[in-house]
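TA notes. Do not distribute before section.
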Amino acid sequence: MSSTRLEHDLLGNYEVPIHAYWGVHTARAVENFPISGVPIGHYRSLIRALAIVKQAAAQANFELGELSSEINDAISKACQEVADGKFDGEFVVDTIQGGAGTSTNMNANEVIANRANQLLGHALDDPQKPVSPNDHVNMAQSTNDTVPVAIRLGCLWQLDDLLGAVDELIDALD
């Protein structure tokens, strides 16, 4: 049994670990941008926010008639699992990367799509997976839509912790 699966993008074929929820775009980003050594999965609030943004987009696309109820439900469940922290280790793109967040966005799209496909009964290495990272999870969105919103939400969710740390710093300096 192979320990990798073959995925394809516009640049060609690429081997991805068979059990990874991320795919070819994430694999290329990991290879091309090994800058800080800190993966985005380290930032729980960001991953939670990305999942919630993707979940809301799927619901909107369903309401517009662009997603079937079956695919919407699978994406929504996958997003909830990501938001709950079940897949933080699958967010492997470096925190500092090229592309203004495109790799972060694609990492999220691939993890959510692959988990949604599993929920629909498909294996990670099934070439006939019905949920596409681009066509379904990222539908009608761009990196410039999702990443800034997710960063803002993640920061807002961490604001109380930051303010507490600032108060501790003020006390220490006093």
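Switch to the second chain here.
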Amino acid sequence: VEAEVEVVDEKPAKTAKQEITKPAKQELAKATPAYDTGFDGELDQSDLQLPRLNVVSPTSKLHTEDEFDLGSVIFEKELELCTKGENFYFVVLQARKDFQQKLDFDGGEKPLIFHTKDEVEENGGTTVYSQDAIDEERYYAPVANILLAVKAPDNLPAEELHRFPMEFDGSNWAKAVVTVQGGSYTAFAKPIITAAMGKLRSKGGIFKGMWVGGTAKKSNDKNSWFVFTASFAGMIDDEESVEFFADLANESSLKPASTDE
């Protein structure tokens, strides 16, 4: 699914445990010299365009035009991170929930996004599902924008390692953003939200959990599609590893959700 989104933000507001080893920290410079990057000026996280993760469904251009296999997870719309039935490991760095207007897929109109239920209601919408609300384009469904540290697959070709520039003890990692709604919100975001409000909160941070990601097939009497899934793999307890992921989380900024699947 590919859609443009107009953001209205009035109040800025496989499942075995993965062993974490000591990271050799790699930081993005706050003031980057030209000799280091070839770019003169002060660079920070706001200048970055982070990779996105997409799941391949039957109507996706990733399948119809780029010929990726159904159910695969694609990194930067170029690299197959895992195929249907396989998994990838990730750590959640930041997450943001918004409410997105439910519009006719073929209408071409940009859905509005609000950050809170109050903002939705103040603008004539509702977060309570009903067919009438959908028909009147007043229904706003939850959508989550989630920033991940994604582990490179073990069998990744050497020429693709540049996509995963952060390395420690033989493992390569990259930041990536995933936007989930509908079935993917239920299967991917809800387990993360549950852990964030429970066991990870009690441990001091959303970045203290290792996750296993994948996809699952869904269908109704008209269509079939694939959704993201997330399963908790275990706590990250090593002090230096926690510091590594905490630094990645703290140096990042997460924008409102933008559906680009």
